[in-house]
Amino acid sequence: MKKLLLLPLCVCCLSFTSHFSKIPRQENISIQDSLDIDLVALKAKGMLNNTIAITIPNDPVYHKTKHYQAIPLWEVMKKYAAIEALSTSDLKVVFECEDGYKPEMPLDLLTNVKVYLAVKDIDAPKGRDWEQIFKGTQEMKAAPFYVVYSDISGEDVNYKWPYNLVKIHFRPLHENDGALKPKDKNYLVGYELFKNRCQTCHAINKIGGKMGPELNYPKSVTQYWKTEDLKAFIQKPESYRNEVKMPNLGIKKVEAEEIVKYLTYMANQKR
Ligand code: HEC
């Protein structure tokens, strides 16, 4: 991947001054660093202090209207990553959360929306930085950062709202296609569903989130779960385990069937 990115990056270095004339760019950031943003380090250096107050109606994590001190995400991304000179349609953004949640989105999806990096929760009670988030009985940690949108509905599954966020990475959009995308088109529906709904928490062949268990390597879940149970679990995990950590994602029966079909195919594609 380094090889792939080197060429466009060299070109983009030459044109930095013009591209970043509006937003002064941090110096002493190397090319490699410039595709990864360590938000915690930026905050420690006082580089995320320039916030504005925003209101998010129907925040899908808190399930109510929320108020934050925030920075437009593009301001952060353009200032601290060398993405502008690259073609955004060839890149994806990967959000890395402390708890292993790792959602990703094509960078293009973020181009025309009002997306912000929330750095402080204005509604937090005295003595706390953030209001508590409860998923069932479990308390989740919102700090240190949370990505929110003022013009996107929380029901749009294409848009991710990562909290407990620590880093942002930029990678080639099709980086993992070779390892995860089936060549046989019978499995593509399941692949797309898995990529959009499951990969945020689960890895296949070590690629993906770490909040839930790896599902393919060294043994595929399809090799030690009964097929019917697997389909049922995916639709309704809470019917299998008490205080289950996997959320009910509203997966339909036909979708669960396609996902299991893909997982079964991947059982023969281990690496
Ligand atoms: C928000 C994170 C999250 C998402 C999204 C998610 N899972 Fe999970 N999943 C988990 C966690 C955490 C566990 C462990 C559950 C537990 O034991 O409490 C789990 C467990 C599982 C298991 C059982 C594995 C085992 O052997 O114990 C399967 C199968 C599974 N998930 C499949 C899926 C599929 C398919 C999707 C997409 C439709 C999905 N998950 C989406 C977090 C997630």
| SSE pattern, N- to C-terminal | HHEHEEHEEEEEEEHHEEHHH
Q: Terminal Cα separation, in Å?
A: 18 Å
Please state the CA-atom Rg, rounded to the nearest Å: 20 Å
Please give the largest β-sheet. 4 strands, antiparallel
What low-confidence regions span 5 or more consecutive residues with pLDDT below 50? Answer: 1-31
| Oligomeric state of the chains in view | single chain
Global geometry? globular
- Helix and strand content put the structural class at alpha+beta
Strand content: 15-25%
Question: What does the average pLDDT come to?
Answer: 88
Q: Number of helical runs?
A: 9
Q: What is the total number of structural domains?
A: 2
Listed once per kind, the bound small molecules are: heme C
Helix content: 25-40%
Task: Provide an overview of this structure.
- With 271 residues, this protein is α+β, with helices and mostly antiparallel strands.
- The longest helix is centred in the C-terminal third of the chain and has 14 residues, at 253-266.
- The chain has helices at residues 2-14, 16-19, 39-44, 73-80, 177-180, 188-198, 221-224, 227-235, 253-266, and strands spanning 36-38, 52-59, 64-72, 91-97, 104-106, 115-121, 133-135, 138-140, 146-149, 165-172, 203-204, 207-208.
- Strands 1-10-4-5 form a four-stranded antiparallel sheet. Strands 2-3-6-9 form a four-stranded antiparallel sheet. It has a two-stranded antiparallel sheet with strand order 7-8.
- It folds into two domains: 5-172, no CATH class; 177-266, Cytochrome Bc1 Complex, Chain D, domain 2, CATH 1.10.760.10.
- The two termini are 18 Å apart.
- The protein is built from nine helices and twelve strands.
- Heme C (HEC) is lined by residues 197-198, 200-202, 211-213, 215, 221, 230, 233-234, 241, 244-247, 249, 251, 259.
